[in-house]
Write a structure and sequence with these properties.
The chain is about 30% helix and about 35% strand. The chain contains 3 helices and 7 strands, in the order αββββαβββα. The strands form 2 sheets. The chain has a 4-stranded mixed beta sheet, with helices on one face. The chain has a 3-stranded mixed beta sheet with strand order 1-4-3, covered by helices on one side. It is elongated.
Length: about 180
């Protein structure tokens, strides 16, 4: 009986000690200040991300073919929801009466510590009474070895994507914008 109490006590201590791990850190792609847009209202519809990165934890590349899921570094929501919310904010917030509908297929969402964050998207913009415009935007922003730097670089990539979409949303525009 005494031995059983010692084993139970040891098990409880092990559980408590095991639960005192590193706390989770949460990150967002949503800008701190919403963007005021005076251009054509755009509603962000469907967003599709590669399944390798569409998860609540941050995923970074390791070497030429490896991926690391960072168990203590989390997005504020699943990445697809973070991406959609951030892009909508960058396009001027929820667009009541939006006249253009945006669909985004993310081809690459790479975060490489100490090097860069890359975003490659194929997007479609449908404006009323006009043919759907299909464009590709590929951007890359340098990042240092910190998680905050990688998240900031992805935020910068989303700002560049939003700039391209805003430029394309101008009524009558029939060509995809080029990024400077």
């Amino acid at each position: 009986m005494h031995r059983m109490r010692n084993l139970c006590g040891a098990a409880v201590l092990t559980l408590l000690w095991g639960c005192s791990s590193t706390p989770n850190n949460y990150h967002t792609l949503v800008p701190a200040q919403p963007v005021k847009s005076d251009g054509q209202p755009v509603l962000v519809g469907r967003v599709v991300l590669p399944p390798q990165v569409d998860r609540p934890q941050l995923v970074v590349r390791q070497g030429a073919s490896g991926l690391a899921i960072l168990e203590t570094e989390w997005w504020g929501a699943n990445l697809v929801d973070e991406f959609r919310s951030a892009l909508q904010d960058l396009l001027g917030g929820p667009a009541a009466g939006a006249k253009a509908l945006l669909r985004v297929d993310v081809q690459r969402f790479d975060s490489v510590p100490g090097q860069y964050a890359a975003l490659d998207t194929l997007w479609r913009l449908k404006r009323p009474g006009e043919a759907e415009l299909t464009c590709r935007t590929a951007v890359q922003t340098p990042a240092d070895n910190s998680i905050n730097s990688l998240v900031n670089a992805q935020q910068a990539n989303l700002r560049k994507l939003a700039e391209a979409v805003r430029a394309a949303a101008v009524p009558g525009r029939s060509a995809c914008p080029s990024l400077q």
